[in-house]
Amino acid sequence: MFKQLKYFSMLFMVSIMLVACGTSNETNSTDPNNEEKSPATEIQISYHLNEQSVVDTASWIKSDNQNFGLYVLPAYELSAEEPNNDVVYFKENDLHMMRIQIVTSNSDWESLKKNTIEQLEASLNEEVETVSTPADFSKNTTVLQTKNDRELITAYLIPKNDHMIKLTIFTQIQDNHLDAFVQMAKHLKVN
């Protein structure tokens, strides 16, 4: 009798553990409005590099440093630079890079724009111009640019509902990676 009681007790415990496996405190809703769509792991991105058209497969990468993800082309890498700053850089020459900053909503748009202009002016000691916004970006996006004979620096200030995105792209005039960075940035998604 004791052996049967022990046997049924063990069977009961195993049953409880099997039933509990795979359960969690989270609810699995089938409401499409509650589900976040996961991005595809890879997509094709078309861009221009040194006046040549290129199509390549980009992989979805999430930042370990900030709350965003984007598609990164194979010749580039996403890395945390410092708190609240990430960079996507060209693996063969890190002079080509895009700094990504997710700025909180309590920041002032005009101050962000003024500080960005001052940073660009200090970088190359050249005048900063406002340039046209690519069609795929929000019409409220501000694009600022400065350059000299060798270098080109472009900043994108993108307002969103609860945050702002500041992209600063550093590249060379002769070996220009601007469009590759812009095409990757078009797919940036803040979580």
| Count of individual domains | 1
Question: Looking at this structure, what is the CATH superfamily?
Answer: Mog1/PsbP, alpha/beta/alpha sandwich
Summarize model confidence as the mean pLDDT: 83
Helices and strands, in order, run as HEEEEEEHEEEEHE
Q: Helical content, roughly?
A: 10-25%
Question: Mind telling me the C-alpha Rg?
Answer: 24 Å
As a percent range, the share of strand residues is 35-45%
CATH architectural group: 3-Layer(aba) Sandwich
Tell me the overall shape: globular
How can the largest sheet be summarized? 7 strands, antiparallel
> How are strands sequenced across the largest beta sheet?
4-5-6-10-9-8-7
Give the CATH topology. Protein Transport Mog1p, Chain A
Pick out the low-confidence regions: 1-35
- The strand count comes to 11
Please tally the helical runs, counting DSSP H or I stretches of 4 or more residues: 3
What is the distance, rounded to the nearest whole angstrom, between the alpha carbons of the first and last residues? 59 Å
CATH class: Alpha Beta
Category by helix and strand content: alpha+beta
What can you see in these coordinates?
The chain has one domain: Mog1/PsbP, alpha/beta/alpha sandwich (Protein Transport Mog1p, Chain A, 3-Layer(aba) Sandwich). It is 23% helix and 39% strand. The protein has three helices and eleven strands, in the order αββββββαββββαβ. The protein is globular, with a radius of gyration of 24 Å.
Short description:
The chain has 191 residues and is an alpha+beta fold.
List the defining traits of the structure above.
191 residues; alpha+beta; 7-stranded antiparallel sheet; 23% helix; disordered N terminus
